[in-house]
Amino acid sequence: IYKKLGIYELLIARSLYSGQQIDKVGVSTASFDHFYLPRLHRKGLVAPNVTDMTREEQSAGGMVIEPKAGLFKNVAVFDFKSLYPSIIRTFSIDPLARLLAAQAPSSELVNTPGSIAFARKEAILPEFLKELGDKRTNAKNNGNEPLSQAIKILMNSFYGVMGSPRSRFYHADLPTAITTAGHWILNQSIDYFDNLGLKVLYGDTDSLFVQLEGAWLEGDKTRELAKNLNHFLAKIIKDEFDCDSCLEVEYEKLYDQIFFGAARSSAAKISERGSEQGAKKRYVGYADRTMSFIGMEYVRSDWTGLAKDFQFELFQRLFEGEPLEIFIKEEIKKLESGLYDHKLVYSKRLSKKLSEYTKSAPPHIKAALQLPVEKQKRLRSIEYVMTMQGPKPLALNKDQPDYRHYIEKQIRPVAQTVLLTQGLSFDEIHVGNQLNLF
To answer: Which in 181, 357, 374, 429 has the greatest CB count within 10 A?
Structure first.
């Protein structure tokens, strides 16, 4: 597996560029020190000790535009390539440049969209990021994927390091300057699309989902949108901040259809109002008859095979315009007849020793405690089934599955996600199905 995925090559490349031993490449604060401290020393300065840092408030996270729950057609995804590194380069965001801003003349200052000043000529990070970016481009052009990935990981770690209290270069203004600039960029981009009569359905830190209509769906019009947005942002950044934009917006893909799932807490309100706020990072896209699941049960390890298969087939029918009620009724019948007994297994990892669960015992712990004592000592995960007698470890189970549990806890929540946005009710489908038996 390591050889197939090129993990050895990736680790070696990360080690070379981070200055860390192979087993320490994930220590991003040390990697940051490795390149930043020598450059700081060459300027005749030293950095503070980590223990001498003053801890301040945390910065805001990336901007999220929550979608409306439901099904939408012709949605293009636009992605900002390496957004945070590009913001650092564009606005000269840097620990030393922040420190020396108070001494620099106003003509040499960069004031970010968050009104945080940086000394333009003193910044170390932007030039180093440009150097890394050029090396990454060369690596990609030469087909060196491990090196390209290693550089990408290093570049993207800088934001987190400057906002980490464990870093000697920590200051709340640094990550705040980056995130507020990110918010400003997304808002300017939304205004750009609004002025074209196009609606932004969803946005998450460095990407925007835009619903296209009419002529914008023809030929290379979508790629032109990305190109024109780059020009628009470059002009407004030059006019307002006297900075050269390093931002690069790319057209990523076009979904023929996309479904945004509702937030769990608001799902019940959808049927009353017809539309409700969707959940972030939770959608299913459909392009070229292929589905992409993000944040849904289908890609989560804590749901059963029953729920995953049911969700896949349900969305397949939704996107292809097939009736959902008949499918759901048939799936429930198959479940209750025992055809899906092999799909009812839960798999859970144990976060601590069994003996440490003293206040409460969730179902997977109850199942684990039924195993022989010797197996319990070595247990790191458990597979179990919910039966009429409660949770049972898969290895020992001979009891009848609790089909009502699986209908309520696995089928219902998956179905409700779709049905309520379509004006349908799971209870009417299921109860109606049960009444037909009499």
So the answer is: 181
Q: Which of 78, 110, 112, 98 is nearest to 181 (CA)?
A: 112
pLDDT reported for residue 273: 43
Q: What is the pLDDT of residue 271?
A: 42
CA-CA distance, 179 to 116, in Å (whole number)? 12
Q: In what order do the strands lie in the sheet with 390-393?
A: 346-349, 381-387, 390-393
DSSP 3-state of 210: strand
Full-model pTM: 0.86
Q: How far is CA 98 from the centre of its chain?
A: 30
Residues 6+ apart with CB under 8 A from 76: 209, 210, 211, 212, 222, 225, 251, 253, 254, 255
Other Cβ atoms closer than 10 A to 289: 9
pLDDT digit string, tens, across residues 78-131: 999 999 999 999 999 999 999 999 999 999 999 999 999 999 999 999 999 999
What pLDDT is stored for residue 345 in this prediction? 97
CA 224 vs CA 106, 251, 367, 376: distances in Å? 37, 9, 57, 60
The tokens for 305 are 């095979």
DSSP state, residue 407: I
d(CA 101, CA 179): 19
Phi, psi for 317 (deg, rounded to 5): -70, -35
Backbone angles phi, psi at 68, to 5 degrees: -85, 140
Rounded Cα gap, residues 39 and 43, in angstroms: 7
Angle between helices 145-162 and 125-141 (to 10 degrees): 160
What pLDDT is attached to residue 267?
47
